[in-house]
Amino acid sequence: MSISLEAINWIAVLGAIVANMAVGGLWYSPLVAGQAWIASTGRTPEEMEGGGSAMALVVIPAIINALILAVLAAGLGISTAVEGLVLGLLVWAGFVMPTNWIEVIFERKSYRTAFINNGCFIISFALMGTIIGFGASPA
């Protein structure tokens, strides 16, 4: 597998980062799953206040996720949105979701928290993969 950084569409990577952050922001808001997620963690809304610094730090994994998806897409010759979508779903199914369940098993996180988190992750990875695949140059 040959990976050329020139094959990466950096605008698509930026779009994937923004999409990841937007999905997470919406998903964990009171409009979607925020209240259920807070309850599933055993904390109160008051304990979760002041999460602005945490939100700022979440950009780091968003950047890493988008970059790795872009590198994999380039190495695999992915050149369509559908191929990118499949890549995003495979990365979620093969790495993200199983890792999240290990936290349930060994850290005793609740199943409800894992389901809520994985709802966000599957949407984020599918969308990031789609954006990166859409922005890829045909091989």
Q: What features would you describe in this structure?
A:
The chain has 139 residues and is mainly alpha-helical. It has one domain. 77% of the residues lie in helices and 0% in strands. The protein is built from 6 helices and no strands. The protein has helices at residues 10-27, 34-41, 45-48, 52-76, 81-107, 111-135. Helix 1 (10-27) packs across helix 4. The longest helix has 27 residues, at 81-107. It starts with 9 loop residues before the first helix and ends with a helix. The mean pLDDT is 91.
User: Main beta sheet: strand number and arrangement?
Assistant: none
| Backbone CA Rg | 16 Å
The secondary structure category is mainly alpha
Number of domains: 1
What percentage of amino acids are in beta strands? under 5%
Task: Give a topology summary.
Elements: H1 10-27, H2 34-41, H3 45-48, H4 52-76, H5 81-107, H6 111-135
Summarize the structure.
Helix content is 77%, strand content 0%. It has 139 residues and is mainly alpha-helical.
